[in-house]
Specification:
- By secondary structure, the chain is mainly α.
- The chain is 77% helix and 0% strand.
- The chain has a domain at 52-167.
- This is TetR/AcrR family transcriptional regulator.
């Protein structure tokens, strides 16, 4: 349980401050444990990043699943409503996974953690939409919306939903 709590605290720090800025003393303070305990659970900064990414991944999928409708198109509308909320309140500096890749471009373990998150998000989109044949297209729209949110805000979410509805052959609201 302590590793989970540390990962949650590190996730919050990395989300707010990025990966380059936090010093060892800031990581220790944010974790809420001694340096020895922090390094026992996460022996390197990269392992701290991976722990934070894993924690965030689990939180994001649980967040999407919360009260998700069973109807495919309604599930996607729910997704974009949730994505807009996530971006506003949980991702002030954009997608933490993409930011981790930028900060650790040559780290295979970070890359694997990000790839796993993105593949599971893609799978979620295909399954929940009931349009597995469009999972890649839905994933690209999702990723575009999360990337564009930093510049366009809610307009990115609205455009993603509109594009998704067009792709599905549904009338725009």
């Amino acid at each position: 349980m302590i590793q989970h709590d540390i990962a949650a605290r590190l996730e919050a720090l990395f989300s707010q401050r990025g990966f380059a800025e936090p010093s060892v003393s800031e990581l220790k303070a944010a974790s809420g444990v001694s340096l020895r305990t922090l390094y026992r659970h996460f022996p390197s900064k990269e392992s701290m990043v991976i722990g934070a990414l894993q924690h965030r991944h689990e939180r994001y999928l649980a967040f999407l699943e919360d009260e998700v409708p069973s109807d495919g198109a309604a599930a996607l509308s729910h997704l974009y409503q949730r994505l807009g909320h996530w971006m506003k309140h949980e991702a002030p500096n954009g997608c933490m996974s993409i930011n981790a890749l930028a900060a650790f471009p040559d780290n295979r373990d970070v890359s694997d953690a990000v790839t796993r998150h993105k593949r599971e998000t893609l799978h979620w989109l295909g399954t929940r939409s009931r349009r597995e044949d469009l999972a890649n297209e839905l994933f690209l729209i999702h990723e575009g919306a999360s990337s564009a949110w930093l510049v366009l805000g809610d307009t990115a979410i609205e455009a993603a939903l509109s594009t998704t509805l067009t792709l599905l052959g549904k009338p725009r609201k």
